[in-house]
Structure formats: C-alpha cells, structure tokens
Amino acid sequence: MTIRDDHSLAGQLATEAGERLVELRARLGFADARALKDAGDQASHRFLMDALARLRPDDAVLSEEATREERMDPRRLSAERVWIVDPLDGTREFSEQGRTDWAVHVALWERGSLTAGAVALPAQVRTLTTAAPPELPEKVREPFRIAVSRTRPPEFVRELAARLGGELVPIGSAGAKIAAVLTGEVEAYVHAGGQYEWDSAAPVAVAVAAGAHASRIDGSPLTYNQGDPSLPDILVSLPDLAPTLLAGIRDLHRQTP
Ligand SMILES: Nc1ncnc2c1ncn2[C@@H]1O[C@H](COP(=O)(O)O)[C@@H](OP(=O)(O)O)[C@H]1O
Ligand SMILES: [Mg+2]
Question: Ligand 1, residues 21, 41, 195: which to mutate, most atoms within 8 A of Cβ?
C-alpha cells in the first residue's frame, strides 16, 4: 500500500483495523470479555503502529495503547507531524455482543492543528473521514438530542437537557457519539470528568472538516499533542446549537460551581 494522501491513509488504516477487529470478535466470541478487550486493543494497536512505521516512517505516533514511556517520549513534542490514534474506542461496547457503538480513530496533527482524520465504525460498516466529510443536517431537530456516555454521563448534562428542553441519548465510544452528531442521529455530544486526546482527535478532525462545532465545554479550543494528553471535557454539536449549549453550561456552572 502506498498512499500519498494523508486523508485517504487515515481512512484506509482505520477501516482495515476495524475489519480485523470484526474478525477477531467473531473468532474469540464474548464468553471472556476481558480477553476480548485486551486482544482487540493489542491487535489494532500493532496493526496501526506497523502500518504507520512502514508508510510514514518520519512521523511520530501517540496511541492509547502505547506504553507510558512511549507516550512520554519527548520527540513527539518537537515533531511536526504526529498521528494520534485510539486503536479501539468503546472497548467496553466492543466486548458486548450485538453492540455497534465502538470505533477505530486515526488522526494526523501537524504543527498545531488536526489536519486529517478518520473514524471507522466497523460494526456499522462505515468510515467517516476528512477525505469526504459528511454533510451536516441543515436544521436542528426539536427536541434536540445530546449523546452522553452510557457508563459515565456527566452529572450536569441531565440538568442541562432539562433546562433547555433536550433529550439524552446514551451511546458508547466518543467516536461513535461524534459520528452520531455528524450523521443526524443526535444534535450534540457533551462529556466531562475525564478523557484523553486519542478519544477525540480523529472524530474532532472529521467534525471540524464537516463544519460542526467542537470545543471544550467552556468554549475554549481543544488542543492536541500536549505533554499531558488529558483532555477531560468536550462539546461537539451542530453549529447552530453551540451558542445555546455553551450559554446553558455557563449558567449551570455559575449557579453550581
Ligand atoms: N471519566 C473518564 N476518564 C477517563 N476516560 C474516560 C472517562 N469517560 C470516558 N472516557 C473514555 O472515553 C471513551 C468514550 O467513553 P464512553 O463510551 O464512556 O463515552 C472511552 O475510551 P476507550 O474505550 O478507548 O477506553 C473511555 O475510556
Ligand atoms: Mg478511547
């Protein structure tokens, strides 16, 4: 495989890693969830690391599944091009039979911003990429829907939705939730309380390319390839809904700091 275009490369790598995960799921089955999660994380990480080393040997990589030492390698902080990958986002859902809300994330950061990315949703047989960003819905549906974590929904989002007249939709995986915003299944994704750069880099690259809003929940920019990869909160939404959500979050936090 020789792929000159980074957008296409992100798409092909995420898609192929995802196909391998589908096969692995079928082969191992769901009896031992821990074993399936670990095998999925490792197989996808190895595939992506080997492919990037072969196809983009001069670039740095930040992967969720790298060792702590590899993640802390200071070379990535002076590199001009860094691939930020989450080999299996929504690991919990991957290990649950029948669930399709898990993803493979491949993003490229260059000199301060995300420039390419892909989110494969292998069990939904689709990959969203910056090569051909999805077309956003033109109008915000009413009542609007906010995707939240199935297992760790932030406390304040229930109150936010109640005040603004929105509905909550629990979905696994940050990539699957942001994809749901871009394809019109929900209108927003709000998360707080903990997350890392690899959980959002690729889906945010696609969201921004599609024209969606993406920021921290206080409206400040999401920044990637930092020394500390923690990026604990995020808001992705259709652009017309963002001012309402940001103002609602600001009001809530003013009243309950
Ligand atoms: N409070 C928290 N602290 C750390 N990571 C969190 C988190 N809440 C969610 N995440 C991570 O964000 C991703 C999406 O989570 P969720 O499905 O709950 O929305 C998951 O990535 P992984 O599956 O790659 O570990 C999960 O680990
Ligand atoms: Mg993740």
Answer: 195
